[in-house]
Amino acid sequence: MSRSTEGGSTSEARSRLLSKATEIFYAEGIHSVGIDRITSEAQVTRATLYRHFSGKEDLILAYLDQADRAIRGQVDAVAAASGRSAADRVRDVGRCIVEGIASPGFRGCAFLNAVAEYPDPDHPVHRAVLAHRQWFLDTVTDLLAQTGDAPADAAGRQFVMLRDGAMAAGCLFDPQLISETFLDGVEEILRARTAPESVSGPAAPPATGTSV
């Protein structure tokens, strides 16, 4: 993605550039922010930026890659936790999401925000967003599959859709209320996964004859 520095180390200037780009892209959007502003606020020259990134697109991809790695690390740690049931690990993933919603400066999902600005499915930014979302869907579906015997594909999609709604609403309405609603939805998914199948026989046929 971004160009490595000599010896494979990451320079302080690159860190400042990526940190500042992350801050501004997330808070204000991507298209509205130019390279000159990022270099100015990061206190580096354009030449320095181009030593570490091939251009703005490369910087955007680095921003998304950094967000992807952070979320993967958090979710993977929860998913691999020992001594926790599969249902509790699903709940823990949900709690990670509501912690983000409650965090200062929350402005929704960085990936949904980015893909709204890059609708072309062939664009590298769009593809990076889809790759992140596919990983998240696969991870959640695998966890849910461990909570019951029925296929978990639909449950995984429901979880992701609930998450998307919570991330979109969390910066528009009361984040505590949104978080509670989201976690209630996660519980409903888990209850549906673990509920015993009905043991009653087929419904009786309707009665025949003259109605009263």
Give an overview of the whole structure:
With 212 residues, the chain is mainly α. Mean pLDDT is 89; it is low at 1-9 and 198-212. It has helices at residues 12-28, 35-42, 46-52, 56-79, 86-101, 110-117, 124-145, 153-169, 175-194. Helix 4 packs parallel to helix 7 and helix 8 packs antiparallel against helix 9 (175-194).
Largest sheet: none
Gyration radius, rounded? 23 Å
Distance between the termini: 76 Å
Q: What are the low-pLDDT stretches, counting only 5+ consecutive residues below 50? A: 1-9, 198-212
User: What would the principal axes of the Cα set say about the shape?
Assistant: elongated
How helix-rich are the residues, as a percent range?
55-70%
Q: What structural category arises from helix and sheet content? A: mainly alpha
Q: Would you report the number of β strands? A: 0
Order of helices and strands: HHHHHHHHH
Number of helices: 9
Q: Determine the strand fraction and express it as a percent band.
A: under 5%
Mean pLDDT: 89
Report a brief summary of the structure.
The chain is mainly α and about 210 residues long. Helix content is about 65%, strand content about 0%.
